[in-house]
Amino acid sequence: MSSIVLDGGLATHLEALGCDLSDELWSAKLLVEDPAVIRRAHLDYFAAGADVATTASYQASVPGFVRRGLTPREARELIRSSVTLALQARDEAGHGMVAASVGPYGAYLANGAEYTGDYDLDEDGLVDWHRERFEILAGSGADLLACETIPSLAEGRALAALLREAPDVRAWVSFSCRDGEHVNDGTSFEKCAALFDDLPQVVAVGVNCTAPRHVPSLIGRGATLAYPNSGETWDAAGRRWLGLADPVEYGKAAAEWNALGARYIGGCCRTTPEHIRQIRAHLDATTPPASAATPA
Is 269 within any annotated ligand binding site? Predict the structure, then answer.
């Protein structure tokens, strides 16, 4: 099955490039402090074989930047700049697409709620909170939106409502899952994915920020998009990552996900350009690459 290779963990690579991301804005703080390094990170992923650059807007929001002391106008310009940087990298690389990251409300909260879906907003509140950034990114010149790391049915419904209002805006949608059957709030993956069945502009529905071992089961439940994390686990007491994800093994797993039915494949937290290089190599060895010019 032909495939489109996504990039890997943007924050992971930015840290490898020497950036300190110990901040509630995470990688989005570099939109203020060092935008050039974001562009370099995108270029490194394109050089590794990625067809898609995902922007540094995951944790960027107007309220988040305003909380930092910026004006709403400055915040909106910074969000747009995340797409500009990726477009510049794409043009320099000479190929690829740009996916504008629409991170979950929990990323703004910066308290880990994106891994549980335990929010202080209901569905209508989530629609209102997402609307401004959604509209900024929808008009930014990106090829599509990456609505990602969604932990709950309620947030999925909120994003589906916004996509329904913008039928010309292409997107992919990915949920964060706690096992091979359920998103993080306990709802079945199939029920969440079905929210987008009547939205033809959604090019794929799948999973990210999920352990790789759960991906085959989730593909069996309809996921066509898979960019899990590295599979490492965080030791909070020791403040360190345990285990070492082998990029070669990750690339072999990616070929298996493709054979099972995933079309969009990449990496999330703790994956690197080397993981993407291995995905590219293993997929090219088994399938002809899909055109990344027009996702379908």
Answer: yes
